[in-house]
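Lay summary

Proteins are chains of building blocks that fold into shapes. Our project writes down both the chain and a compact code for its shape. Here are two examples, one after the other.
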Amino acid sequence: MGVAHLPERGVVAVRGADAVPFLQGLVSNDVAGLGPGEARFAALLSPQGKALFAFMLFADGEDVLIDCAAHDLQDLARRLAIYRLR
């Protein structure tokens, strides 16, 4: 299978055993039911319910890859970092 370069898209990786539980409570779709090689559309919503970011979720072992528009990449990563426990 070939590889396509899509400069208008970017990927954020959420890694580790807690990736799925972390995202399960944050995004609009079921992350826990995401199977290997499966993709799902989801969104990150504001507390008022407005869509902030729309993206595709991909399961990659324990990791979850988030495919979003390249211009949203840094803002999405920053927003997810707000919810991360240190």
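And here is the second example, written the same way.
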Amino acid sequence: MIKKSFFGLVKPRLEYEVPTGGLPEPRLIPPPKTATLMIEGPFDQRDPALFKEGDPVKIGQILSHSPDSDAYAVATVNGTIRSISAYSGDYGKSYTAVTVEAVESEETDDRFVEQTALLSLDSALDYLVCAPGAPPLQLFKDPEHSIHTIVIYGGDNDLLVTTNQYIVKSRIESLKTGIGVIKQITGVENVIIAIPGETVQGYGHIGAEVKRVDTAYPAAFPQMIMQNTLGQVVPAGKSCEELGVCFTTAEAVVSLAEMFDRKQYPDRKLITVVNKAENQILVSAVIGTPIGNIFSELGIDPGDRDRIIIGGPMTGASIFSTDYPVMPDTSAIVVQDKADIPYISDYPCIN
């Protein structure tokens, strides 16, 4: 949203969405018939002995890339591995795509059930790095980073997105439980939850210090929160983690509560879908669900030369197939009509 002064005395500014009142319940997207799980790492470097086509999988089962790699995916459906292939992602990332043909079953992997009883950082690292919100738990094992503060952002860092705000408004007890879990497994007691909007009242004894974040874009970015909310400037060439501050999201913290409190693998991701009319629809989909399934459920029909963006309109990336799966960090899906996309020439400039 763009706000502009009537008298023109104040510069216009982009505003994050801050819903007032209650948010509607998310639309539940049915489990997919086939789910595609992405494991970061080159396909030709994976160890075929760890899993192969035709192998059965259960919810909560780890699919590792190789014994020498920390990269893995966790099965979000029960079924059989149908195909394993190479996939090229954004910014030069390489993935191994594992497609699972699902069956209707609620069976959970035995090892995962055992690990839910072990409230530890190692157990969380083994399963939750690719859970909804993608908790950055590996930072707490990194000897180069000494984390002393955890900042949980209760909003979203792009425009039109309300995924984490729904979590804060509707799952406060799970958020409170997750804060307790993250304190226990990391040993970090200084936890701050940053909330966008005019008020930070009404959160009670949540187990974290509550601070307000401005609603003007890009105030939700970690470097901006560091400066404007925590009063600490991140020097050029440095990261927040190098200064001892770890940023995560409300959804990631709730994933901790799902595993250790409810003893369930958090297989569903909340996503804000923005259609061509710029209407926002909150959905809940199993990680690995093709986004085409979401479009079918919502009656969205992307046409030729329409644009599909994974992420918000400011920081998202375009994709070119509706077979692209829901990922642990998929916070939004935006569909732009071709008529609303400005023409950009790719001819080189010769002055």
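What can we say about the second shape? Residues 90 and 168 are 30 Å apart (CA to CA).
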